[in-house]
Amino acid sequence: MKEKERSSDKIENELIRSIVAGVYSVGSTLPPERELAKEFGVGRPTIREVLQRLGRGGWITGRKRMPAVVNDYWRNGNLTTLVNIIENHHTLTDEFIMYLLELRSSLAPTYIRDAVTFNQPKVVALLANLEQLEDSAESYAAFDWNLQKRCAGLAVNPIFLLILNSFDSIYLDMAKRYFSIKEHRLLSFDFYHGLLKAALKGDVMEAERLSTTTMAKSLEIWKDRKK
Q: Where does the record place the HTH gntR-type domain (predicted)?
């Protein structure tokens, strides 16, 4: 039984990677069960189990006695789809980084505002040693992720941190790509200093405003990079 589970997990991940990479494009069909079973060297019941999982995850739509159709997973997927994408993060693109920046733009101003509102001294402590921040992609990635997660944890709504925790396995690698650009580091450095000043004053509205404008700017310059 365990061997079957390992095989089905492996096949599921392989098919997800193929879909994300475009080997099986949106609207196309997967090979029939018989062909997949032969390709992966397993029985058809194992393939059937994998296809059922992919269906529950929003990756495909199964059809009776016909090959499954590949869904537009960004539109038809669900939280399981997102977890699947994260688990197979080596296939992620710059486009996915843009999506995460958009998500951060929506969430960060609220949890940073709440963190300053309810835990002002702790936010100040997070930003107290900015002068020790090294001018490198690695240092900025680690500092930024720690700041984001700690502020989310200091907010009232626990769901903020749960959402960020979902990205633990991929954030640092993606952030290193983002912070490899000098302009991005400078923007964040100014933001950290501005947030520190706002936190010291207990200026909740300024903390929220800074977060909103900085997140919007970071998304804008990432999009411009792709033009």
A: 5-73
Indicate the DSSP class of residue 140: H
How many Å apart are CA 86 and CA 92, to the nearest integer? 8
pLDDT in tens, 56-98: 888 999 888 889 999 998 888 887 888 788 777 665 677 777 8
Domains and CATH numbers, the chain: 2-85 (1.10.10.10), 92-225 (1.20.120.530)
What whole-number distance in Å separates Cα of residue 3 and Cα of residue 217?
49
- CB contact at 8 A, 211 and 113: yes
Query: Residue 59 gets which letter from DSSP?
Result: S
pTM: 0.74
What pLDDT is stored for residue 2 in this prediction? 42
